[in-house]
Every structure is written in C-alpha cells, then in structure tokens.
C-alpha cells in the first residue's frame, strides 16, 4: 500500500487511483529560456522514482510534463539574439531532454507545448469569461477573478486576507482584486496569437491547467512539482479548474523541497547556480542520482563537496561488493541466476511506499550490501544465495534509477585467475604475487 503526503490536506494518505491499476501524473515542466540548473533536476529525479515505484507496485502510469515555450523571457532572448522564439525554445528543450537522459530518467509519455495548445487555451479562457470567473480589463488583458473561487487557498493553505502583500503578485490598475491573475495578455511584442480579446498570448497559470485537461482529463491522480510552485502557480491552476469543472484538478498534490548550495539558497544574485548537465558530467549519472535521493524529497537537499563525498562513499559501499561478486563469479566460471531475494526487495519497496522514504530504503540496500561483503570473504560462497542478494540490490537500484553495469571478464582473465589459485595451492608465493598484481591492475582483485 503506497502512502503519500498530500500538500492539499497536509497529511500522508493512502494512495487510491481514480482508475484501478492506472495512474495519471502531471509534473510541471520548465519555461525554456535557459539551461536546467540542479534545482530543476530534483523534480526530474523525485517523480521518476515515484513513477518507477508505481510501476513496480503494478500500476501503469501515464506521465505528462510540459514545456512552456512562450514567455517574456523567451521573447526578450529572441529579440536580443535576432532570432525567433521557436529557435530559443527548441535550443533549451533539447538541452533539458539531454539532462533527463543523462539522469537516466524514464522520459515523460507526453510533453505538450504551450504553442501547440493555443486553440484549447483560448477556448478555456472564453469559458471562464462566459461563466463570470474571468473578465476583460480596461487595458485589454483578461484576468481570473480569485473571488469567483470560494476554495481559493486550499492548495497553498493561504487565504486572500492572510497573504503577504506583493508575494509574486503583479499589481495592475486593471485588476478588480490585486490577486487576480492574467489569463490573456494583450501585447504587440514578440510572438502573439489572435483571440476574441485582441492579439496577445496566454498567462502561465492557464497554460498548465489546459494541457492537463487536454492530455489527461479534468481530474488526475497526481500533480507534482517543486515547492516553489505551490503558490501561486498550482493554487491558480486549481482555482481555474474549480470554476470550470468543480474539482481542484488533482487528488494528490506532491511537492519536492528545494536544493541549497553550500547551505545557501541557489540564486543568480549569489552567483552559485549549478547547471544540471555540468553536475552530471562531473559526477556521473549514478552519483548524482544517489545524492538526489539521499534526503527525503520533502526536505531541503544541500549540495556541497562534503555531501557529494558522503554520497560517493555510500554508493561505493553498495556498488563495490556487487562488482566484486560479479567478477568472482565470472572468474570461477559461475553463471549467477536471475532470481532475487523477494523478501529483501519487498522490504525496500515497503520503505518507499511510506511517502517515498528513500533514506530508509537506502538502509535496506546497505544491509544487503553487507551480506554480499560477508559472502566475498568466503573462498567458495553460496552462489545461489549470492545471486539472490545481488539481484535484489540491482532491482532496488533500478527503482532509484541507478545503473548497474556488468564487468567484462575474458578467458585470459579466467586463465590468469586459475594460475593464481594454482600458485597459491602450490605455495609458489612469487608466482602468486605476480598473478595477483596482474589481476589487481585489471581491476579484478582489490
């Protein structure tokens, strides 16, 4: 039974999908005006692990994550470079997808773009206007009236009379309420579309809700993203859906916490931004993902030399005995079976089923790695048990997106290993040392 923390209710709840055996999940994607930083990579990993867990527990998953390919920042960059918004957007979409692949994530099933959803967005805004939940301002923009949604604030748990003044609010004299937000922006700058309200482009909060409706339907199981999206983005999405379909868009709202750099919030002003692709290129896929999941997804993750080194040691503690057991089996001509320790694997899944508790799941992995180390100390291990333990660890790592590569052992390596054993048996220590040195240089003995 999977239990997950629901931001909407502030409780850990038993997960019950709308349709038995199937999960619809939408995770807010990037506004593609720049490269992905390491903070953008955290939801990639968190929701990839969640998807893998759901699949391991027998669900099929339709995973949707969008690209916001129209925005003031995209328009400004296109003007600055003397090119089109489409060229700018595609550059960073390609880079974002490269990060996803570099992180060994299972790519979303659907990646809708705002520019490909424009007719649906305009129709949705018109529906809100017709229902009285939105209005055309004196300056020609279309705004959503937050007063139209009596449930406004249920996602972020902030009420209008309690909100801090100026909290990401675009103050405009054309608004009836300072917290009303733009659904359509009238503009003559950059890319624009015809609409009943004149040429312009949509507002951010409307784009996602329309893409969810179009690709998944009016009510989905899981809506995810970073904690910074909880307000106003997700709150405003839910408000629009409440006024059109009388539900808050998703049954479970899941948010991951932010990443800090050396104990500080990552920001341009501090100059401590780390680009995700640079991090993966430097640390590798496995280490980056291990570090990402080493802290519970609802807690802030600190990225520093110290935490990287700790993650490296932890990962080595798991990967080294796996490689050693594979090498030892191959050198001895043993073919390890494909079965796995089902009890150990079940214990691992049980930890993840408890609100994606990756730190506790790591504990299970460490226990199994310790067993492998104990087997390695025996000259002739129980190969069947070794295979069960080793394969269980690999299945656990697969849920975490960690790749296990089989070491290559040649006939020449096996012959060298046989000579080493023969020399030891004959107490020919000089020959044994020579063979051992050669095996160690090949990385086959430690």
| Overall pLDDT level | 93
Assign the structural class, choosing from mainly alpha, mainly beta, alpha/beta, alpha+beta, or little secondary structure: alpha/beta
Order of helices and strands: EEEHEHHHEEEEHEHEEEHHEHHHHHH
What percent of residues are in strands? Answer: 5-15%
Tell me how many strands there are: 13
> What composes the largest sheet?
4 strands, parallel
**Uncertain segments:** none
Spatial strand order of the main sheet: 4-3-9-10
Give the number of helices: 14
As a whole number of angstroms, the C-alpha radius of gyration is 27 Å
- Termini separation comes to 42 Å
How much helicity do the residues have? 40-55%
What does this structure look like?
By secondary structure, this protein is α/β, with parallel strands linked by helices. The chain contains 14 helices and 13 strands. The protein is about 45% helix and about 15% strand. The strands form 4 sheets. The chain has a 4-stranded parallel β-sheet, with helices on one face. Strands 5-6-7-8 form a 4-stranded antiparallel β-sheet. It has a 3-stranded mixed β-sheet with strand order 12-11-13. The chain starts with a strand and ends in a 5-residue tail after the last helix. The model has no long low-confidence stretch (mean pLDDT about 95).
Write a short abstract of this structure.
The protein is an alpha/beta fold and 446 residues long.
Give a quick set of tags describing it.
single chain; 446 residues; alpha/beta; four-stranded parallel beta sheet; four-stranded antiparallel beta sheet; 13 strands
């Amino acid at each position: 039974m999977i239990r997950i923390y629901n931001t909407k209710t502030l409780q850990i709840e038993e997960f019950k999908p709308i349709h038995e055996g199937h999960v619809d999940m939408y995770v807010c994607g990037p506004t593609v005006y720049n490269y992905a930083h390491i903070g953008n990579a955290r939801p990639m990993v968190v929701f990839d692990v969640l998807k893998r867990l759901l699949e391991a527990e027998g669900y099929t998953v339709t995973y949707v994550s969008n690209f916001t390919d129209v925005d003031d920042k995209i328009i400004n960059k296109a003007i600055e470079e003397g090119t089109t918004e489409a060229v700018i957007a595609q550059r960073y979409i390609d880079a974002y997808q490269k990060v996803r692949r570099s992180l060994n994530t299972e790519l979303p099933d659907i990646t809708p773009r705002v520019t490909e959803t424009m007719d649906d967005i305009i129709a949705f805004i018109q529906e809100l206007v017709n229902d009285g939940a939105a209005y055309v301002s004196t300056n020609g923009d279309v705004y959503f009236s937050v007063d139209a949604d009596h449930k406004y604030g249920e996602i972020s748990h902030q009420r209008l009379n309690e909100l801090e003044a100026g909290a990401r609010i675009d103050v405009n004299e054309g608004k009836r309420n300072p917290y009303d937000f733009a659904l359509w922006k009238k503009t003559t700058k950059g890319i624009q579309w015809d609409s009943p309200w004149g040429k312009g482009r949509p507002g951010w909060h409307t784009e996602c809700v329309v893409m969810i409706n179009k690709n998944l339907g009016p009510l989905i199981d899981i809506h995810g993203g970073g904690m910074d999206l909880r307000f106003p983005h997700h709150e405003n999405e839910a408000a629009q859906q409440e006024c059109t379909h009388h539900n808050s868009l998703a049954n479970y709202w899941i948010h991951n916490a932010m990443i800090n750099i050396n104990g500080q919030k990552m920001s341009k002003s501090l100059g401590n931004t780390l680009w995700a692709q640079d991090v993966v290129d430097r640390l590798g896929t496995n280490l980056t993902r291990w570090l990402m999941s080493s802290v519970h997804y609802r807690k802030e993750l600190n990225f520093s030399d110290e935490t990287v080194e700790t993650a490296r040691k932890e990962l080595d503690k798991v990967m080294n005995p796996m490689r050693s057991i594979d090498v030892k089996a191959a050198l001895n001509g043993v073919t390890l079976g494909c079965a796995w320790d089902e009890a150990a694997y079940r214990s691992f899944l049980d930890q993840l089923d408890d609100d994606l508790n990756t730190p506790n799941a790591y504990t299970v992995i460490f226990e199994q790695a310790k067993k492998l180390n104990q087997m390695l100390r025996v000259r002739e291990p129980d190969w069947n048990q070794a295979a069960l333990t080793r394969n269980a660890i690999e299945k656990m790592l697969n849920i975490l997106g960690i790749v296990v590569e089989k070491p290559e052992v040649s006939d020449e390596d096996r012959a060298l290993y046989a000579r080493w054993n023969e020399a030891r048996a004959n107490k020919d220590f000089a020959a044994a040392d020579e063979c051992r040195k050669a095996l160690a240089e090949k990385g086959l003995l430690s």
